[in-house]
Design brief:
single chain, 348 residues, mainly beta, Leucine-rich repeat, LRR (right-handed beta-alpha superhelix), elongated, binds 2-acetamido-2-deoxy-beta-D-glucopyranose
Length: 348
């Protein structure tokens, strides 16, 4: 029987190969191939938890794309520890749980294609200016560290080897980035959960879509604190044990924000309607386990896209076409739409 050529090609295209290959003792290296004639491949190297005294850099295959070095007690990162052959092709790197206190100025500079970096569960208090400069990072996890301040400087970019501090204070980002021949900041996701930040860091100029600041000792959120993060879609400000006040217009400028998590903030007792001004796209608001137990009367006029609000303990409000018989009307959204809550007689 002769199989038609197209059928053979289809079979080849459908098969996704995965092969284990030789690598450094204690590590696990796996190659995943995709596409017709295996034209694409990814090499994943897992060197977690290798035990004390492992010399760095650990040798890895030349075409490694994903490297997991978590839980290796690496300590301070020197300029050479991540500079071996194979490191230049990395797309993602996991350095979590490594007792990292310090990262030397050029420790990451060889990682020219790095998009995802996990530095969570370390002891970082600060990063050298330009520490991430020139890396095409889109996702950085710095959760569970000891940052008291976080500075934009770490993302600033070098031109011709000279560090340039990107001045974003007057919205000069566009002119700066065009002079860098398209080398713009790509950071879309930043996770600063469980640090020691006492105020919202100034992140103006980063095209962030996801920002997580949960579990920081932030007591006040000031008007305009997030004003320049116009690309933000998801903002989590949960478990801020000290949070007492969110000033009016704090979220102004976040016209693309869809999800706002303010849950588990027990000291936050009230919210003025103007807190929500400018949140034109907000669909989900989580106030579960917060001190806020009632919604300001006319807040809905500021939230034209809202679909769901979670309030207090287990009270869920959602947008409905018309008022249900046992539902309490909170406010008029459109002519025939109201926000209804599922607990009869809830004090709202
Ligand atoms: C941020 O970090 C926390 C704690 O490590 C984790 O639970 C959460 O999933 C992370 N969020 C994102 C968006 O990566
Ligand atoms: C709202 O927040 C609570 C407490 O943090 C969490 O358990 C719940 O999953 C959140 N709900 C949604 C829909 O995100």
């Amino acid at each position: 029987m002769v199989l038609p050529l197209w059928f053979v090609l289809l079979l080849l295209a459908a098969v996704q190969c995965s092969a284990v290959r030789n690598c450094y003792p204690g590590c696990h290296c796996e190659v995943e191939s995709f596409g017709l004639f295996d034209s694409f491949s990814l090499t994943r190297v897992d060197c977690r938890n290798l035990g004390p005294g492992t010399a760095m850099p650990i040798p890895i295959p030349l075409d490694t794309t994903h490297l997991d070095l978590s839980s290796n007690s690496m300590g301070p990162l020197s300029d050479t520890m991540l500079a071996g052959p194979g490191y230049t092709t990395l797309v993602s790197l996991d350095l979590s749980s490594n007792h990292v206190r310090k990262i030397s100025q050029n420790a990451l500079s060889k990682l020219r294609y790095l998009e995802t970096l996990d530095l969570s569960h370390n002891s970082l208090q600060s990063l050298a200016p330009n520490c991430f400069s020139g890396l095409p990072l889109t996702e950085v996890d710095l959760s569970h560290n000891s940052f008291q301040h976080f500075d934009m400087d770490v993302f600033s970019t070098k031109v011709n080897g000279e560090p340039v501090s990107v001045d974003l204070s007057h919205n000069k980002l566009e002119s700066v980035s065009s002079s860098l021949h398209g080398r713009v900041l790509h950071i879309q996701s930043l996770n600063l959960t469980a640090n020691r930040l006492s105020s919202i860091p100034n992140l103006a100029g980063i095209p962030l879509r996801y920002l997580n600041l949960d579990g920081n000792p932030i007591a006040y959120i000031k008007e305009g604190a997030l004003a320049q993060l116009k690309d933000l879609v998801y903002l989590s400000l949960s478990s801020l044990g000290e949070l007492q006040e969110i000033e009016a217009h704090s979220f102004k400028g976040l016209q693309g924000l869809q999800v706002l998590d303010l849950s588990n903030n027990p000291k936050l007792k009230t919210l003025s309607p103007a807190v929500f001004s400018g949140l034109d796209s907000l669909q989900e608001l989580n106030l579960s386990m917060s001190g806020v137990t009632s919604l300001p009367m006319n807040m809905l006029s500021h939230l034209p896209s809202i679909k769901s609000i979670i309030l207090g303990q287990g009270v869920h409000c959602w947008r409905t076409q018309k008022q249900g018989q046992f539902h309490r009307q909170l406010g008029q959204l459109q002519h025939d739409e109201v926000l209804s809550c599922d607990v009869q007689g809830a004090v709202l």
